[in-house]
Specification:
Strand content: under 5%
Largest sheet: none
Structural class: mainly alpha
Length: 272
């Protein structure tokens, strides 16, 4: 029996995201120093006590970086969960709706997609106040229109297939058609899109934190680390390089996972 091999891009993506997830998990139980500990000395270079040095207040950079990984992955997961719930629900509803309602929903989604997710998130956070929960809700709502539009297109494509007509002719109800036919057929494509949205969610959270609209202190987001490090980048470059590299690793990792899942799900991209 031939064992199906995984694409190299998928393996590398899993390694990058898995490493960040491991760091985030460890930070739940242990960090080298407390986030409020300022005994390390201002802008100390990397040493045995502080492997990545300290910031301008004497706080350990590695500890704050580890907590930042937890925030980035938490925001990515929960915002994608919210965006997927809203987007898939609206998309399936539009796919089954009458033509006039479907066209209205489609036009509304096109208008919402014209606004960048980050801009929508900024408006929502500005209204609710800066907090981690606000960032999660805002990013989730911001990406829901993209997921809804994709879901609608996929549902329309599946509904046009002959097996849907045969299933309905045999007496299968619409809710059961959705469960046994619609969702299994649209899920492989949706997974790829959700993986991409996960990386964008982490990047959006960092952008919000950089602008002061993310998780408030003492939380340490990668975006807030970059914002704080910009004034000391010449004297302590590691404080800016480390969170930047973490963001790059997260985005590249989820993009590689999405590309690997796409190549596995699309038979035209598989090597013979």
């Amino acid at each position: 029996m031939k064992i199906k091999s995984r694409p190299l891009t998928l393996i590398v993506g899993y390694l990058l995201v898995g490493l960040l997830a491991l760091v985030a998990l460890v930070s739940l139980f242990w960090t080298p120093y407390q986030l409020s500990d300022t005994t390390g000395g201002r802008l100390s270079p990397p040493n045995l006590q502080h492997l990545l040095g300290t910031d301008k207040l004497g706080r350990d950079t590695l500890s704050r970086l580890m907590v930042g990984a937890r925030i980035a992955l938490s925001v990515g997961f929960f915002s994608v969960l919210i965006g997927a719930f809203i987007g898939i629900t609206v998309g399936i509803g539009a796919g089954f709706a009458q033509r006039r309602i479907d066209e209205s929903v489609s036009a509304l989604l096109d208008i919402l997609i014209a606004f960048p997710t980050l801009l929508v998130a900024m408006l929502i956070v500005a209204g609710r106040g800066s907090s981690l929960s606000s960032a999660i809700i805002a990013i989730g709502i911001g990406m829901s229109s993209i997921i809804a539009r994709l879901t609608r297109l996929l549902v329309k494509r599946v509904l046009a297939q002959d097996f849907i007509t045969a299933s309905r002719a045999s007496g299968t109800s619409w809710p059961r058609v959705i469960v046994i036919h619609i969702l299994p057929n649209i899920w492989p494509t949706l997974i790829v899109s959700l993986a991409l949205q996960f990386g964008l969610a982490g990047l959006s959270e960092a952008s919000l934190s950089y602008l002061g609209l993310g998780a408030p202190p003492p939380n340490a987001s990668w975006g807030s680390l970059l914002q704080e490090a910009q004034v000391t980048v010449l004297t302590s470059p590691i404080a800016a390089i480390a969170p930047g590299l973490c963001l790059v690793a997260l985005v590249i990792g989820v993009n590689l996972i999405a590309d690997g899942l796409r190549s596995q799900g699309d038979p035209t991209l598989r090597k013979i």
